[in-house]
Design goal:
The chain is globular and about 65 Å long. The protein has 6 helices and no strands. Helix 2 packs antiparallel against helix 3 and helix 3 runs antiparallel to helix 4. It is mainly α. Helices cover about 80% and strands about 0% of the residues. GO terms for molecular function: voltage-gated monoatomic anion channel activity. Keywords: Membrane, Transmembrane, Transmembrane helix. This is Abscisic acid G-protein coupled receptor-like domain-containing protein.
Length: about 170
């Protein structure tokens, strides 16, 4: 699953860049688009509508669950760092509010990974929002955070490699 999500993240970075440059919002979810390409170019004989719906829901579920899990772990670390016996109730209320807003924003922004008929249901539930505005900013923030994370990981990895070489050069190995 790690390799699949690495490819998916790379694809999402590329598509976010294309969406920002050409000021567009995707019309199809990535699973349906990928399956249509596979059927057209590789000649697979499968029901694209049926399988793309099930795979899309599984993919969106995995993304939302892992994202919320990471968010909860980060909030738990923050809670342990700042909490005291007097402030714990207020912090729990603030964190519950943050968690609710995070969940609603994830559902709203992940609606693009769902088939069209389910996208319209979420649109009806959330009301008359300007989804183009939110999807554009989601792409911008996602691209900036992805590139920043890649840069930080590159520098951290480069620093570890440099310190390993420095230690092995100056210190004798016994």
């Amino acid at each position: 699953m790690g390799y699949f999500f690495s490819l998916y993240c790379s694809w999402k970075i590329f598509i976010s860049l294309v969406n920002i440059v050409f000021d567009r919002v995707g019309r199809k979810d990535p699973v349906t688009k990928g399956m249509e390409i596979a059927v057209h170019w590789l000649g697979f004989d499968i029901d694209v509508q049926f399988w793309s719906q099930h795979i899309s829901f599984f993919l969106v579920g995995c993304i939302i669950l892992t994202s919320i899990r990471g968010f909860i772990l980060t909030l738990t670390r923050f809670f342990y760092a700042v909490s005291s016996s007097k402030s714990s109730n207020i912090i729990v209320l603030v964190l519950a509010q943050l968690m609710g807003m995070y969940f609603v924003s994830m559902v709203m922004l992940m609606r693009m990974n769902m088939p069209l008929e389910y996208r319209t249901i979420i649109t009806q539930v959330l009301g008359d929002l300007q989804f183009h505005f939110y999807h554009r900013w989601f792409d911008v923030i996602f691209l900036v955070s992805a590139l920043t994370t890649m840069g930080i990981l590159y520098l951290a990895h480069k620093q570890v490699n440099t310190s390993d070489k420095t230690e092995s050069f100056y210190e004798p190995k016994w």
